[in-house]
Design a protein that fits this description.
With about 325 residues, the protein is of the alpha/beta class. It has 2 domains: about 35-60 and about 70-220, Rossmann fold (3-Layer(aba) Sandwich), CATH 3.40.50.300; about 240-330, no CATH class. The protein is about 30% helix and about 20% strand. It has 9 helices and 12 strands. The protein has helices at about 50-55, 80-90, 95-100, 105-115, 120-135, 150-165, 180-200, 210-215, 245-250, and strands spanning about 5-15, 20-35, 35-40, 65-70, 70, 90, 170-175, 200-205, 220-225, 225-230, 300, 310.
Length: about 325
């Protein structure tokens, strides 16, 4: 097993909103090994983006530890933490039209992190900007352009180049293709995969599209209402055991492996007052009274020791899907 690029242990994140407490992350344990790609999937509001903020040091957990390399980042002074994360972690945001400063040229955008961290010499920084443009497949002439003068795909390439400027160990990609035209999504995705292999990066790829995540990841992590409910190797994705992951798979069209759509019923739980026990039990067709007592402990999937899920009544056979298909529900 490679050394961990980042490790989260029992991380809890809560927000105050109108006097109420919103539980954004609850008891999250996640380790990303050096060179590993971990995909995070789940519907809107499940905690994916909050997890990204924790990984890049923008959100301090209410409890739990966040360790980059061998250092707990929240035990460091602010300046040390910013330097450590700034040098070791790169972030690619969802929409490059808002994440890039529209008043700065591409050269200034790429030079900025190098200057802030006083990376080597000024001459080395100038050379690094040209090197980054080549790395992401942009011509040298793009350096003088403003973001508005570039296409959406080119802007996202600039975002990727900026994230890689300081040669980080870990790259966080938060829905990096969702704001792009369909015609360029595959290009950007292939670029990320190529750079990850060439540079030996660890990567956390966040998306609501489980099929894309399965394609690019070494491990697929399913989140629901701020909790990790399943971790699956991509080769075992069709044998996922948690009912929620099965519902996500059924919502994604597939010509090769069509799945009967699963329509979830029951109340959508609130992050202010999350249900006791399993967070998915209010919408699960297999839930029983046992599911309300406590969060299910981790169990190992039948096909791989790398497959773990939290469920008292997993989907192990086709019979376990009885009553889940949309046509079976009232």
């Amino acid at each position: 097993m490679n050394a961990a690029a980042v490790a989260l242990t029992d991380v809890h994140v809560t927000y105050r909103a109108r006097g109420a407490r919103v539980h954004a992350l609850t008891g999250v344990d996640l380790t990303v090994a050096a060179g590993e790609t971990v995909g995070i999937v789940g519907e809107s509001g499940c905690g994916k983006s909050t997890l990204a903020k924790v990984l890049v040091g923008l959100e301090r957990p209410a409890s739990g530890t966040v360790v980059h390399g061998e250092r707990d980042v929240w035990q460091l002074r602010g300046s040390e933490r910013r330097r450590l994360i700034g040098q070791q972690v790169g972030m690619v945001f969802q929409d490059p039209s808002t994440s890039l400063n529209r008043r700065m040229t591409v050269r200034q955008i790429l030079r900025d992190p190098l200057d802030i961290h006083r990376w080597r010499t000024p001459a080395d920084r100038a050379h690094r900007v040209d090197e980054l443009l080549t790395l992401v497949g942009l011509p040298g002439s793009a350096a003088a352009s403003l973001p508005a003068q570039l296409s959406g795909g080119q802007r996202q390439r600039v975002s990727i180049a900026r994230a890689l400027a300081l040669e980080p160990r870990l790259l966080i990609a938060d829905e990096p293709t969702s704001a792009l035209d369909v015609s360029v999504r595959a290009q950007v995705l292939n670029l990320l995969l190529e750079l990850k292999e060439r540079l030996g990066l660890a990567m956390v790829y966040i998306s609501h599209d489980i099929q894309t995540v399965t394609r690019v990841s070494d491990r697929v992590v399913t989140m629901y209402l701020g909790r990790v409910v399943e971790q699956t190797p991509p080769e075992a994705i069709d044998g996922t055991c948690h009912p929620y992951t099965r519902a996500l798979l059924s919502a994604t069209p597939s010509l090769l492996h069509p799945i009967a759509p699963i329509r979830l019923t029951g109340p959508v739980p609130s992050a202010v007052h999350p249900p006791s026990g399993c967070p998915f039990r209010t919408r699960c067709w297999r839930a029983t009274g046992e599911c309300a007592e406590r969060m299910p402990p981790p169990a190992t999937g039948p096909a791989s020791p790398r497959h773990q899920y939290h469920c008292y009544h997993p989907v192990l056979t086709p019979a376990d899907l009885a009553g889940a298909a949309a046509e079976d529900l009232p």
